[in-house]
Protein 1
Amino acid sequence: DTGVSQDPRHKITKRGQNVTFRCDPISEHNRLYWYRQTLGQGPEFLTYFQNEAQLEKSRLLSDRFSAERPKGSFSTLEIQRTEQGDSAMYLCASTDVRDTQYFGPGTRLTVL
Amino acid sequence: QKEVEQNSGPLSVPEGAIASLNCTYSDRGSQSFFWYRQYSGKSPELIMFIYSNGDKEDGRFTAQLNKASQYVSLLIRDSQPSDSATYLCAVTSGYSTLTFGKGTMLLVSP
């Protein structure tokens, strides 16, 4: 399978715990994006990387959120001290040379 | 603040009919326009993209762009029950992030 992959697909955690999600982009894509989507809303941008450089972060990305993309390959998104409001689908996308974004299956986070 | 507006629906059409989905955007600098389909509980799947004014056809789908009116639409011909999903309109300005609308739910009845 050569699409974008994300792990885990589902995560249930207790409030206050830390969680980390992983995204593996399509191999030849050098830009990688993270979005968050809640019920009834479209995806909202969180952050994006060009290779290993984090070029833009949304105001939605509070201090509890951190993202990395070591060596410009896979990316991780960590949420520290989770809150119930963090419950959402976290989507990763990578782009081809035409700047068309292809999404992974997402990680659904539930914070109890 | 870049905004993308869509009617939330649901838009109900009978099988075989044409479904028309509409989207307006606020940023005149927007350059690329996308339609994604999203089934419940799944991630968005790219359906169409369009960069220039006019129509672009791909199978049963036609995307229409009018930059002067800041308006994008998606027509689905010969609608099938399997087309029932939420359709997300998204726009971007060059190498930038996508700004999504909230999506329009389409229901195609057999």
Note: Chain B touches chain A at residues 4, 8, 32, 34, 36, 41-46, 49, 88, 90, 92, 94-95, 97-103 (CB under 8 Å).
Protein 2
Amino acid sequence: DSGVTQTPKHLITATGQRVTLRCSPRSGDLSVYWYQQSLDQGLQFLIQYYNGEERAKGNILERFSAQQFPDLHSELNLSSLELGDSALYFCASSPRDSYNEQFFGPGTRLTVL
Amino acid sequence: GQNIDQPTEMTATEGAIVQINCTYQTSGFNGLFWYQQHAGEAPTFLSYNVLDGLEEKGRFSSFLSRSKGYSYLLLKELQMKDSASYLCAAPYSGGGADGLTFGKGTHLIIQP
């Protein structure tokens, strides 16, 4: 158990819909990262927040957005969902903002039908 | 981002040693990570190399050569539970404060 929690564990929805994934980092960690893992693309970095501020962007689509709240939990919002968005979404946290071990949550499996 | 390559799949025997290679091309090097991921589970951290050389941690060791853009993960005394994917990763932009770019992972199969 990494100490990072993610909800929900599974999510099934339809194309065109919008969903919100939630992540609580380890106690004391200020950085939160979101990753998408699909069979064809592998594990891809989406976005990072550090102490409430956006810190870095990766391959995040414009239909996706995220935020980190004052209590440091984070939410990833996915809108206008497409079949290709079906994937495992991981959240990770770390104490600082760079070059350190990241602790991954158990993931949310999103299925878009 | 960075460009990271590693073999897709490897097979080894229980009790043996296996070396998983990773080559990378990065813009501004800031270290190389290795993660282990069992099917359907979260990746877990194994090692982080920022200087050249071998770092040993129990049955697992990781090597880095910055001049060659090359790293390997060495697993000794293989156990059945070592069957997993092993992911090589580097900081996304190489400039600090960012996530990781992962290779596609090497699926390691351990046979009795």
Note: The two ends of chain B are 39 Å apart (CA to CA).
Protein 3
Amino acid sequence: GAVVSQHPSWVICKSGTSVKIECRSLDFQATTMFWYRQFPKQSLMLMATSNEGSKATYEQGVEKDKFLINHASLTLSTLTVTSAHPEDSSFYICSASPWTTNTGELFFGEGSRLTVL
Amino acid sequence: AQTVTQSQPEMSVQEAETVTLSCTYDTSESDYYLFWYKQPPSRQMILVIRQEAYKQQNATENRFSVNFQKAAKSFSLKISDSQLGDAAMYFCAYRRARFTGTASKLTFGTGTRLQVTL
């Protein structure tokens, strides 16, 4: 199947700093990528849809200025958590599907665990 | 809006036995996809099985099969001959077909934690 790589897999940062998480589709092009957030023992909640070459679409309640998303190419989307605070600590997962596919399947990155001290 | 409901927060099964995980969903669409994803402790999301709504035949993948009841909007997962490696969180998910962008997002249920005992 298609491969999505996410980096870093875990990161610890100080409160007030910014952290960038990368999501790459390694063997396919993706015009759309999705960013999810998962709290411990909970489900995945969609944060935003990353659209190549245009602005991201954020879900209700997600702060655009805190969670900056850039989708500069067909194989890379980045999520930047700006001025991170302890409540931003979470597991972030990206997903994507080849725009040529018709199976409906989304492929997931390995996830990034963010801890803000 | 589409919703996915998993009413079993936790399930337990003995090794080699069969277990069924329940999932219901709500949608006004006629064309869509349904999935079961497995999330082990590593938290990597792994596709278990997928079903296209226009196909009446239930999908099967080795020990995994589904019971897809479109009219009832039900999509249960049966795991046969359970193995210790099946222990994980299982998420039922819905995705609209023939849409792009945000409209094509995956909507997840709350998950069912499966324990496999000896």
Note: The interface with chain A takes residues 33, 35, 42-45, 47, 50, 52, 91, 95, 97, 100-102, 104-111 of chain B (CB under 8 Å).
